[in-house]
Amino acid sequence: MKESTGKMTGARALIECLYREGVDTIFGYPGGVLLPIYDALYDSDIRHVLVRHEQAAAHAAEGYARATGKTGVCIATSGPGATNLVTGIANAYMDSIPMVAFTGQVPSSLIGNDAFQEANITGITMPITKHNYLVQDAKELPRIIKEAFHIASTGRPGPVLVDLPKDITTEEIEFYYPDKVELRGYNPTYRGNLQQIKKAAAEIKKSENPVIYAGGGVISSDAAGELKELAEKIQAPVTTTLTGMGGFPGNHSLFIGMPGMHGSKYANYAIQESDLIIAVGVRFDDRVTGKLKSFAANAKIIHIDIDPAEISKNVKVDIPIVGDAKGILTNLLKYAEKSQSEEWLKKIEYWKKQYPLHYIEPATCDGIKPQYIIEQIKEACEDAIIVTEVGQHQMWAAQYFRYKEPRTFISSGGLGTMGYGFPASIGAKLGKPDKVVFDVSGDGSFQMNSQELATVVQENIPVIIAIFNNGYLGMVRQWQELFFDRRYSSTCIQDSVDFVKLAEAYGALGLRATKRDEVRPAIEEAIASGRPTVIDFVVECEENVSPMVPAGAAINEILDLERKE
Amino acid sequence: MRHTLSVLVENKHGVLTRVAGMFSRRGYNIDSLTVGVTEDPTISRMTIVVRGDDEVLEQVTKQLNKLIDVIRVTDLKSEETVERELALFKVSSDVSNRSEIMQIADIFRARIIDVAPRSVIIEVTGDESKIDAIEQLLRPFGIREMVRTGKVALRRGAKGVSS
Known about the structure:
The complex is a heterodimer.
Chain A: E1 7-9, H1 10-20, E2 25-28, H2 35-42, E3 47-50, H3 54-68, E4 72-76, H4 80-84, H5 86-94, E5 99-105, H6 121-125, E6 131-134, H7 141-153, E7 159-165, H8 166-170, E8 172-174, H9 194-206, E9 210-214, H10 216-220, H11 224-234, E10 238-240, H12 265-273, E11 276-280, H13 286-289, E12 300-305, E13 319-322, H14 325-335, H15 342-354, H16 370-380, E14 385-388, H17 392-400, E15 409-410, H18 421-431, E16 437-442, H19 443-446, H20 453-458, E17 464-469, H21 474-483, H22 499-506, E18 509-513, H23 519-529, E19 533-538
Parallel strand pairs in A: 2-3, 2-4, 4-5, 5-7, 6-7, 9-10, 9-11, 11-12, 12-13, 14-15, 14-16, 16-17, 17-19, 18-19
Antiparallel strand pairs in A: 1-8
Helix pairs in contact in A: 1-2, 1-7, 3-5, 3-18, 9-14, 11-14, 16-17, 16-23
Chain B: E1 2-10, H1 15-25, E2 30-37, E3 43-51, H2 54-66, E4 70-76, E5 81-92, H3 95-107, E6 111-116, E7 119-126, H4 128-138, E8 143-148, E9 152-155
């Protein structure tokens, strides 16, 4: 325990703890019970970004965390402020993103009385946080905050919530910040078992059809370099999940794209015909595996994951290796030898040529294909950070950009949260101010948090929102087209809003492109402007995301859906 | 298949909710759950009886271990464990059949802990099958109310789950 640095209020102590945790930016929205904390923030060097809805604070904190690798921090008041964070917390939980959320709470004496703006937020968030705390004694506050940051960022990362009753923030305490954390029930395993690693190496050597299947764990453990080395050494093709995008270079000859529902045909075929899956930092999500029974039926499965509960949760694993991906891959590299994959790689090359990701360009330049916009953004700014909302545009952004670096693709994977991308792009831009940040958006998703235009204008955060405007809730429409006989029940949102005027109303730059040859100039103008910008790309309204594995099918039962002109 | 899990947890408010919530959220069924403080006042022990095959047991154990407040989870194998349950039965009874009920209680080493003109309360401890058996015998007299604690269990011998 360090020496006391004097007496201070709980609110001041909170700020002091944030300093010591290296927090430079927090996202939040004030309220009655938070007044002592906001008063303490007024004198601090920590940048507080005032969002316009608490949900955006949580998403922005997450975007910041994903872009930087640091722990994101958000704060909201009690009751409705706290419940508005819930979606963002759930999103961070599903994608294992380190985040600490602070919520104000009514004074201790009123807790449980259904007081004004009271909600039992620790109860509400229990199933969607890695851990949470209700601070009951101001003296405990520094220890709890130390633990919260430790839990959020170690092991399998995740969100931690700290609920702060108002009296805790006004009470004077002697400030001690603990040096280390002592949690007897929390001891994540980092080092993978050496015997298991050797077993894995032996399987790799024997394997003729190996596939590396890598996910978000590669990004969070900073293991992209080791992954690339391993793939090259053992000569195995690599597929990365949505949250694993950028964990392996998208332009590498061994890269075979994303697996699963909207994965490439060749990734899905490769998985299904493989004899060995080397799964790294993935959790065998149903959007990847399709019908579980027929997933990689003839493959042995090596599963590297820091969370033991992920082993054999969905798919039976032959060689589990529990621990941190970076360390395990480093060790595996020492023992692994080349697999017997010469013929296999030829077959994969053949599949790649036979079934490339593609779309059919319209004959004239009148219509804009959404895939074309992704390609143009890539050509204009290859090292941009692409953040997405959820829907068709998200899948196109995953398929067509070819991310080269980790932390350059930020998307809501597990929860699939519409309205995520714009606030997350705010966090990403603040975390990486030198990068161009695009929010690739649909017209539906954008309207879920478009109020944050006020935030980016007031705070001068120049993100570019690229709206793929097709007048539909596109992905749902696609499902209705395919599985509900084109009965477009409540998915048409045509003419609902003029996005250029909306941008201008907030003081942002609004641009529109309706023809193919207007796409690139609009992108260039947005980047050059240095201002928060909305580009309304009016795209072909019934374009589908292709290929597609219908829900519940095996992943090699994959359909081509491109529209013929 | 039923499994008895001994779960050592931090003795803090809200821990029971976290544990019970994990079961309900993931769709696992608790047959019984008892909780009380241990020889170390900062630690509570939960004895949880859960139904499921080995895969369910493995997932339950791993998911419990993920909770920050859970210190240790042990699957207690029946052959190396002593298990007890406490039950109270309030049985309809008057002078005509009181002695008969007392005889049954005697046989089961149960105790009569309340006598009223028209009822008695019987306390019994034992494993599940013993309590089931006395319940069967008392039923014809008319069980007005009954309560069972659920199972508590300790590993036999000097070795505990925390060592």
